[in-house]
Amino acid sequence: MSRPRTVLLTGASGVVGRAVLREQHPDRLRIIPAARSAPVPEAAEPVLRCDLTRERLGLDPDSYRALAAEVDVVIHSAGLTEWGLPAERYRPVNVDGTRQVIDFAAQAGATVHFMSTEFVAALLPGAPAQLRSENICRNYIDSKRQAEELLRVSGLPHTVFRPTNLIGDAATGWTSRGQIVQQMSDWLLRGRAPFVPVHPGIRMDFVAQDLLAKAVVRAVELGDDEGAFWVSYGPEAMDVEGCLRVLAKHAAAVGRTFTPPPLVDADTLDPDEIDRRDPMTRAYLSVLRDVGEVTRCSGGVLPTSMPMLRSRYGIPVVDDTAAYATSLAYAAEHLG
Ligand SMILES: NC(=O)c1ccc[n+]([C@@H]2O[C@H](COP(=O)([O-])OP(=O)(O)OC[C@H]3O[C@@H](n4cnc5c(N)ncnc54)[C@H](OP(=O)(O)O)[C@@H]3O)[C@@H](O)[C@H]2O)c1
Fold it and tell me: Quick one: CATH architecture of 5-169+205-233+302-316?
């Protein structure tokens, strides 16, 4: 029997990394979890401490060589994911760090599966609208776009997964950390939103993190080494009213009162309506407006590879509103 493929997983301590580890089948894949400093409770092997901003991933020459001799595949999930930072903060990790991963993969003769973002759609040539330079997500997205480009010109066998905003596990809502969708939802549920800025026609496209993890693990198992996949629902995704209905149902289930805030057209909204608010309200409203703008610049309805992900990688058909409701229930009980 041939040995299972050996996979180096960067970002193993992150939301995506930990979801990938939950999908591993040790008889089919051996995953070496790599992270900078945070714990990785799902790891079946000792965690390799590496830093993408350092030469040879921060490893000594012998360890680096030995690792390259072992590894067949890299799942590159490490990155700086916080929004709203200057471009020079993203470059060392997301761009130069990906260059380090490419150099490693070239030495190892490994295929790379790169976790990019759906949001690169907003910066692609032919995007239906121009993203404002001050959009809170822009520098992050641009760093992911540059990383994709490095991979494209590297000549290495690789795939690119472009997930939209992720939520908890489809069946249980589990997540290692609350993310933007849970934080925004909580803020809305607490009745803090004076209004919701909405770009006309956009969908609320959230994907359960295990669907991404299943697809990536399956791509590795199948030995796939090309393609770029939009991990999103596209036209199947709920609209804004549908999203508010899920929130209202959740509130009723946990005995809370929820009055959906009014929707206002983000295109005609006076910026002062946001700027004059207290800092917390301003921050939440700005994120809502800017994420909506990214969606609008990506076409309003996001590009999707969901049919292909289901047929080739066998990811289950999951109703997005059901997964969102499950995620809310988990967050209410476990994320505080
Ligand atoms: N989660 C989402 O909703 C989502 C959506 C679209 C795309 N993505 C993409 O998917 C990937 C994973 O996202 P995530 O949500 O799992 O991110 P995350 O939870 O923020 O985790 C980031 C990971 O990167 C590692 N890391 C950060 N800086 C590093 C460095 N200098 N050297 C080595 N490792 C470093 C972190 O390690 P430590 O914890 O040890 O510091 C952590 O494991 C990202 O590239 C992101 O762009 C995520």
Answer: 3-Layer(aba) Sandwich (3.40)
